[in-house]
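U., I forgot to send this yesterday:
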Amino acid sequence: MSKPNKEQMLFMYRKMVEIRQFEEAAGKLYQSGQLPGFLHLYIGEEATAVGVCTHLEDEDYITSTHRGHGHLIAKGGKRDRMMAELFARTTGYCKGKGGSMHIADKDAGILGANGVVGAGIPLAAGAALSAKYRGTKQIAVSFFGDGATNQGVFHETLNLAAVWELPVVFVCENNRFGMGTPQHEHQRVEDIAVRAPAYDIPGVTVDGNDVLKVYAAADQAVARAREGGGPTLLNCDTYRFRGHHIGDPGTSYRDREEVQEQERQRDPIRRLAQVLIDEEGVTQKELDALETELANELDEALDFAKNSPEPLPEDALNDVYADGIQP
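Result:
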């Protein structure tokens, strides 16, 4: 298994903590009525985004989902501009018009979170086609959930990406539930990776809550894509510790003890912390100091968002594109 060095592991730990802190803060802000819109938290799934995105260059692309904050931070999204977007302020990535489910930053290769199930899959293939056409070494990664693998666009895109040998990695974040429906009730296959051989591409299943295992699997998939070998389907077995969205307690379709057991045994941050302490000589005091540093940065990001201007009514007419329509 490809293993990162100490510095890389500390970087991944940092990124996972950044995501966890952001999501916990966003959840509290939403519940206190300070944030508009909808909110889907990524708490518990941090290892998948970080394990994959650690291999990506700035110019590489990702497409995201309705649960996209983790992907954006892992790819280099700034928490101050993300928080401003959640507050619907003009300093947000999309000037406050996108909100939680539609944050994008083309300069960082973030082609957008997306509220439509599976919609990011063909967008990633399009970005990969562009890179191949231009002869660059860029690749694209598409993140999506288990429910999206039942969409026709999933199968159509995997087929076309395989035929054209596109530099794209398809990452299924299988958190075992499509909203409130268990995976076994919406598809017959237990291992989503078995769908890959139908398109003659590799399919790999890994523990999506172990960042080191995700890192190793992504290492091979990204290298294959970058070297012209074509796509790979990664099925990351993960688990969200919160409900489908902020208003969903997640207890009507999941056993409370199951959730608690997942949090105790499979928290990706705790698991990497233990490796750093046991194998790399990092102390708990050092990890605590890092978390305090990141918490202070998040406080600054929150102040930035709250003190940023709200959009004016006339801003609704800006950044809107429609062919043949005169203002």
